[in-house]
Write a structure and sequence with these properties.
This protein is of the alpha/beta class. The chain has 22 helices and 19 strands. The strands form three sheets. A 15-stranded mixed beta sheet has the order 1-2-3-4-5-7-10-12-15-14-13-16-17-18-19. Strands 6-8 form a two-stranded parallel ribbon. Strand 4, helix 11 (228-238) and strand 5 form a beta-alpha-beta unit.
Length: 583
Amino acid sequence: MENLYCIPGSSPVTLSEEFLWTVAVADADEIDQMLQMLRAATVYASQWRNSFAPAARLPGDVLLLIFEHVLPGRHTCVLRTLSQVCRRWRSTILQAPLLWRKALNLADRTMWFSEVLRQTRTVPLEFFFDIAEDYTGYAIPNLTTVMNDHFWRCVSLHIEGYKEDIEEIVDSCITMDKAPLLRRLSIHNISCSLPSTRDGEAEIPDTFLSVLAPQLVSLHMEGCAFNWNIVCSRLAPRSPLLSSLCVRNFRIQSAATVVQLLSLLESFPSLKDLRLQNSFFSSEADRNARPHKVVLSQLTSLVFESSTVAGAMLLAALELPSLTKLEATIDVGPLSTDIHQFMEGVQLATCRMVHLPYLYIYYGHHLLIMHSNHHHHFPTLRMTFKNWALRDPAVPDTRFTYLIRGIADVAVLWKTQDLKVSLLISIERCLSPGAWAYFLRHLKMISFISFGARTPVFLIRTLLLDAFRDNEGIQVRSRLLPSLKQISLPSIPELKILIDILADARSQVGIPLAVSTISRVRPRHTGPPPEVVREIVRDWIADPMVHSIPGDSTWFVDDEGMDSDEADEIDELLDDLDDIDDE
């Protein structure tokens, strides 16, 4: 019985007799020492065994790539968890400042943020600050620390805020006038609390825009007042590599004159991407001045929003030999001659672009859109005219005539092959009699026409008159659209009859024309018999009243198409207008 209580009857594992005897004769202190040695041996054996695991045998650089992949941006919890897996992982993470840079979060507690910042050592830093994301109240003190002590190693800085604290940071906390690594600077919705000469509106401090940043390639300022002359005289000479400039304003007080803008652009010869929204206007001095040509040899993308006159002056003063993308949103002015001046500027700006194969002309939502090339492929040309309200019919309106003739004069469109048009009859009525003919003579390579929900009946009339003159032996200067092969149209019986008459007339002069229709989901209202429609159309062609329409005005309007495919396409174009800041 005594043996039962003193010495175990059998060992749980197979052990040597010598070891068992040593245990049997050992006292308590000696057994404690044995247990400590056994635990250390177990740990050592476990570590050695773990070294054969696939994850433990990964090279250090591969392990870092995995950590970087699983680590979400501006989040330190995952990094903490990974560092507690094993000694090797912890050592690897502590020696990886790039991981700590990715985990930097301005919203973290100040002590932890300072520790993470210390772990980044001297690697370049990237910061994104939005006051809306400051859910802890620590972001502003942490940002102050960065701007005071680490601004010199910032490579990317985005600041967005609406509070006075942010204004104070931008106003006073930069203690260094050098940012040797800074490549991207973005400032949004900040107006610093400084005395201003512009109707009480404050400006971004001149010191902030005077920082020496020789590597700066991207500058984005949105909703911020600033001194244009400071940018031109101080920032531009210190940032010769700047290739992307975006300025978006919401108050005209923050805008520059056209002459000021041209002076600024001339200071940035390396510009490749330029985006301007409500950032410049045409002053009285601009109208009287004759600005010299500004050559931006590397500029490939120009996107802007302005008035018609200001846009015309800007385009006329720029020489853009490398341009592949031009998008302009124009607030139509009261004078129709402005459209003519603007389209002349478009002709000059795009004269070296490659030819564009697609053209879409659309009116809706008080917008008149001319869009060339689609699916966001380069090159791209798009003009959006805002506030194109229909005027009193008794008042002559030549704006659309100037626009159509201006489009026809854009050389890069002369080889257009696909044309899509959707226009209200009330818009077409504003055209002068020979406008469509002028347009079609210049875009003579068109082989396919697609009509949208609102059929341009006077465009069709122009083609009909051209075909009938050939049939009647009347001498014409040149046949319109000799390459036209196919027309696609909504499934409207009256419109189908009209296009069939056109196809018959063109086939008689040796130009066959295929006609395809888009099927309807809902049945259309019952119209007059086909014979009646044909007779009305023929009378309409012979009618000397050029601005009349055949039959009922609803004949050529696709009520279903206005609610379906075309509406979706226009919504997509309108969404693109909101992308004036990036891509």
